[in-house]
């Protein structure tokens, strides 16, 4: 147990004015030690060493505003029915006269629940053999060309069945939550047939994720060409996928889909009502940035190979650049030009890219450390990038990513006296508790 809190409530049947008190365990493996006979509608996290949140109301944040984090010392957060009602200093806490569940935040910091806007968390099997081969010198592209890579996960995912896929997403979501992620997106793209793509999307939604149809991830072996596969995917999968997914994504890269094919896929997906995202410029500068801007995509993700023209174009657009430094590290690739993007005024977000092949990493705190040491962002810029800006990429600006009145009461508590330990503690886990939808899980 990493902390404790106390509940005060009027017990059912108790005489008016008699207050019952019971202890609630609070931590990763904790459960409530008493049943609450009345519905507690308010929750107070009090005496926090610090509360840190992106400021303002805008999304996405860019330029100087990206690094303007509000920090309140000796702070509280008050939640009501799943929503943040108030935040402030303890000395300004109003008198609370109804039933309130309290969490003692002494020695801890509160930050918004983290938002992972780019994962591939729905898959079966693993690629540990491939990891070892790569460590011995094989490149990711060579492995992909040899039938390893994405297609090996496609084989395992097709064979798994929907129930196993749902269990996998739930297991992975638990890993992510242990590192502070309370909202996550996950993509399909390991089915590449109708049945498995739709099963993936349903499994992601059932496990609480936000589903993205990555129907154009790779060309499965039963199709002769990318164009033939897209004929099938757009005619046979898109109509049903569009009823489950919120966005569509494409892997625009040498050996996967080219600009013309990506345009065809994305235009069809937009016509079906899906928001647009692209994997672009991961290995080669592939035309993804101009296409994303032209089509009004929400994001273009990776950008490890993006040059100065792409940086300038993104900065002048509304498309968010999603940076995935864990993937670049995992594959020993160059890091994306994050500092140049931020300095030019581009909106950036951060994600894990959690997947079995190129980024087996579910931890946004590790991404936060990499953002500071490898991308040369400040801890404050990194926090905004995987809270409010990531929420914008997922169409949840105004609900997720800030500790401010009216936002969803998703709060992460850090077992540290300063919130920047989130970035500072490389590979450690300072996450010591959560509030999800206004309740302690
Ligand atoms: Zn990805």
Describe this structure in words.
The protein is an alpha/beta fold and 441 residues long. Strands 1, 2, 3, 4, 5, 6, 7, 16 and 17 form a 9-stranded mixed β-sheet that branches. Helix 9 crosses helix 11. The longest helix is centred in the middle third of the chain and has 17 residues. The chain is globular and about 70 Å long. Zinc ion (ZN) binds next to loops.
Indicate the topology.
Blueprint: E1 3-10, E2 19-26, E3 42-54, E4 69-80, E5 83-89, E6 100-104, E7 109-112, E8 114-116, H1 128-135, H2 140-145, H3 150-160, H4 162-178, E9 181-187, H5 194-206, E10 210-216, H6 226-241, E11 247-251, H7 259-271, E12 275-280, H8 288-295, E13 299-302, H9 308-315, E14 320-323, H10 325-330, H11 338-344, E15 348-350, H12 364-373, H13 379-385, H14 388-393, E16 411-414, H15 421-424, E17 431-435
Parallel strand pairs: 3-6, 3-7, 8-9, 9-10, 10-11, 11-12, 12-13, 13-14, 14-15
Antiparallel strand pairs: 1-2, 1-6, 3-4, 4-5, 7-16, 16-17
Zinc ion is lined by residues 118, 120, 279, 353.
Would you summarize the structure shown here?
This protein has 441 residues and is α/β, with parallel strands linked by helices. It contains 15 helices and 17 strands.
Model regions low in confidence, pLDDT < 50 over at least 5 residues:
1-38
Mean pLDDT: 90
Strand count, sense and barrel status of the largest sheet are: 9 strands, mixed
Q: What share of the residues lie within helices?
A: 25-40%
Shape: globular
Structural class: alpha/beta
Features:
441 residues; eight-stranded parallel β-sheet; 15 helices; 32% helix; disordered N terminus; binds zinc ion
């Amino acid at each position: 147990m990493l902390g404790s809190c106390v509940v005060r409530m009027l017990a059912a049947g108790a005489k008016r004015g008699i207050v019952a008190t019971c202890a609630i365990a609070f931590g990763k493996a904790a459960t409530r030690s008493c049943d609450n006979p009345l519905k507690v509608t308010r929750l107070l996290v009090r005496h926090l060493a610090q509360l840190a949140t992106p400021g303002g109301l805008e999304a996405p944040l860019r330029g100087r505003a990206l690094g303007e984090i509000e920090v309140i010392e000796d702070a509280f957060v008050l939640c009501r029915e799943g929503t943040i009602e108030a935040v402030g200093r303890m000395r300004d806490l109003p008198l609370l006269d109804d039933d309130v569940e309290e969490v003692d935040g002494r020695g801890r910091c509160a930050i918004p629940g983290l938002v992972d806007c780019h994962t591939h968390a729905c898959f079966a099997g693993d690629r540990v053999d491939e990891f070892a081969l790569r460590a011995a010198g094989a490149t990711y592209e060579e492995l992909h060309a040899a039938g390893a890579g994405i297609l090996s996960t496609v084989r395992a995912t097709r064979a798994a069945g929907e129930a196993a896929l749902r269990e996998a997403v739930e297991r992975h979501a638990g890993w992510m939550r242990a590192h502070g992620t309370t909202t996550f997106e996950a993509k399909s793209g390991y089915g590449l047939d109708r049945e498995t793509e739709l099963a993936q999307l349903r499994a992601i939604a059932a496990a609480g994720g936000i589903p993205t149809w990555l129907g154009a991830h790779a060309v499965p072996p039963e199709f002769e060409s990318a164009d033939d596969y897209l004929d099938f995917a757009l005619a046979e999968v898109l109509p049903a996928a569009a009823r489950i997914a919120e966005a569509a994504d494409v892997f625009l890269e040498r050996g996967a889909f080219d600009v013309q094919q990506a345009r065809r896929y994305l235009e069809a997906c937009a016509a079906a009502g899906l928001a647009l995202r692209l994997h672009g410029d991961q290995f080669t500068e592939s035309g993804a940035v101009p296409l994303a801007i032209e089509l009004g995509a929400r994001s273009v993700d990776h950008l490890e190979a993006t040059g100065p023209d792409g940086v300038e174009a993104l900065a002048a657009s509304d498309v968010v650049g999603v940076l995935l430094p864990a993937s670049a590290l995992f594959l020993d690739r160059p890091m994306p030009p994050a500092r140049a993007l931020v300095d030019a005024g581009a909106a950036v977000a951060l994600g894990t890219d959690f997947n079995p092949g190129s980024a087996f990493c579910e931890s946004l705190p590790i991404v936060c450390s990499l953002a500071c040491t490898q991308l040369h962002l400040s801890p404050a810029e990194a926090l905004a990038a995987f809270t409010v800006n990531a929420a914008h990429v997922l169409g949840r600006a105004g609900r997720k990513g800030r500790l401010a009145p009216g936002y969803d009461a998703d709060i992460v508590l850090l077992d540290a006296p300063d919130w920047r330990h989130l970035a500072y503690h490389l590979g450690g886990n300072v996450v010591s508790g959560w509030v999800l939808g206004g309740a302690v899980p």
